[in-house]
Amino acid sequence: MLALVPRDLDGVDADASTLSNEELLRRVATGDRDSFAALYDATAPRVFGLVKRLLRDHAQSEEVTQEIYLEIWQTATRYDSDKGGAMAWMLTMAHRRAVDRVRASQASRDRDVRIGIRDHAPAFDSVTENVEVLIESERVKAAMLRLTELQRQAVQLAYFGGYSHREVSAMLSVPIGTVKTRLRDGMIRLRDELGVAS
Amino acid sequence: MTSKSSDEVGPDSGAYVLHALNDAENARFESLLAESEEARAEVTELADTAVELGLSIAPVDPPAALRGRILDRLAATPQLAPIGSTAQVGGTRGVASVGEAPGAAEARARRRWTVRPVSTLIAVAAVLGLIFGGGVAVTTVIQGQQASATAAEIGRIQAAADCRRATVPVRTGGTATLIWSAELKRSAIVVRGLGALPDGKTYELWYLDKAGATPAGTFDANGSTQSVVLAGAMKAGDNVGVTVEPAGGSQTPTTAPIVVVETA
Question: Would you call A183 and B88 a contact, using CB atoms and an 8 Å cutoff?
């Protein structure tokens, strides 16, 4: 057992599955496909869970997850571990990509409606979906419950629903300026509750 | 309230990290980020807070077949040249960009760039959000309605003995696949999942070489799959880029490319 330690420490022969996501990402940046596969295995359920939460549709979630991992592959060269963890980098990218797809689908849905093809009304159930269902982590759940009702709804719709401030404003019947303020105040409150510091 | 409502940061930081701003507001907020240390600090923390929300969602195992499909595509997906100090903020890397003194890594990257000056220029522009320019000529605009002509031309390109293709993710979402034949001097781009632009904006295609960018047509997108044949002749070594331009297209790119497909 002890004899194995130096091998692991030198990093070269270490089993990819024991490496940190940051180290895997650094190796991916050099074109290492085995490390990419290991990184995928370590992170895909988180990324797919997030994407599926926003998109609902299974096929689209697969497509977007594929886009995200190809972007990770392509831009791993630009990842800087000094500026944050690999998972944070990947989830931020995943959220942006999922939101882009929500907007694109929304745009084609709007167009369909305009030309008379009646689509099913967009599922606004995330408005009513409560924090209990949405959030697995007790810590985050507790923090969310410390927000005002309007802050919580706005943050939920924007992050978990992928809705723009304009859509959130329409759904909650408050002006866009108010939505922006609630989103900022809500996120600041969450930051403080969760003890996030840079 | 918890917010100190700093005048310097303004109200958009929360919506920014939640990806809830529109494109114009996003661009405006990113220029604020470039100038304001206070805004950068706030966005870094709020972006990390947004990541906490992401981590609170129950993981879902993707279908097993997805892994193979992704791994199969790596070979055809070129990796970007490293840029030392992209200097992006917190968890919003890839979205925000702010200036920072060039470091050793950038110097290293520069050396690498001298080998491929065009892709270098594009990469820098893409990352720093700079405007790039160059002398260009007017070319024909090809509209999406010419569907059958497009299909026929793509068929011709694909039938060429030297037909090649490359797929690249688009910075703003979706993918772009370039199909080209050096012999025919023709190329076509297949975009997938590119979002619709606001009124008054259009996507514009460019042939990119050392001298700059040559317009190669405009197109609109709606999130579905679309094919566009590029206008004009493709020269050996030309890369292809897409920017967002005012309706009708520009003679010279006025925004950073959302995607560049390298053909080298």
Answer: no
**What is this structure's pTM?**
0.58
Q: Are B172 and B211 in contact (CB under 8 A)?
A: no
DSSP assignment of A79-124: --GGG--HHHHHHHHHHHHHHHHHHHHHHHHHHHHHTT-PPPPP--
DSSP H or E stretch at residue B166 = strand B164-169
CA B21 – CA A134 distance, rounded (Å): 23
Asked if residue B26 belongs to a domain, the reply is no
Q: What's the CA gap between A74 and B87, in Å, rounded?
A: 18
| Torsion sign over Cα B172, A51, A92, B70 | negative
Same domain for A78 and A167?
no
B152 plus B245 within the same structural domain: yes
Q: Residue B259 in 3-state DSSP? A: strand
Inter-chain residue contact B172 with A36, CB threshold 8 Å: no
ipTM: 0.84
Checking DSSP bridges between strand B175-181 and strand B259-261, what pairing results, if any? Answer: unpaired
Q: Which residues contact B137 (CB under 8 A, 6 or more apart)?
A: B214, B215
Write out B15-68 in H/E/C secondary structure: HHHCCCCCHHHHHHHHHHHHHCHHHHHHHHHHHHHHHHHHHCCCCCCCCHHHHH
**Residues A25 and A39 sit within 8 Å (Cβ to Cβ):** yes
Range of the domain at A25: 14-121
Whether the Cβ atoms of residue B62 and residue B45 lie closer than 8 Å to each other: no
Cα torsion A21, A23, A26, A28: sign: negative
| Same structural domain, A105 and A131 | no
Burial class (CB in 10 A: 0-12, 13-18, 19+), B169: buried
- Return the closest-CA partner of residue B118 out of B22, B18, B255, B210: B210
Domain count across chain A: 2
Please tell me which of the candidates A77, A158, A187 has its beta carbon nearest to residue B81: A77
- Divide the 264 residues of chain B into consecutive groups of 10 and give the mean pLDDT of each group: 59 96 90 90 95 94 96 89 47 35 40 32 33 24 42 74 83 86 88 86 91 89 82 90 90 88 86
| Minimum CA–CA partner of B17 in chain A | A92
Domain assignment of residue A1, yes or no: no
Q: Select the residue from B70, B92, B175, B222 to test the A interface by mutation, using most A Cβ atoms within 10 A.
A: B70
- The answer to whether A46 and A89 have CB atoms below 8 angstroms apart is no
Q: Say what the pLDDT of residue B44 is.
A: 93
Are B154 and B256 members of one domain? yes
- For A46-78, the pLDDT digits (tens) are 999 999 999 988 999 999 999 999 999 999 988
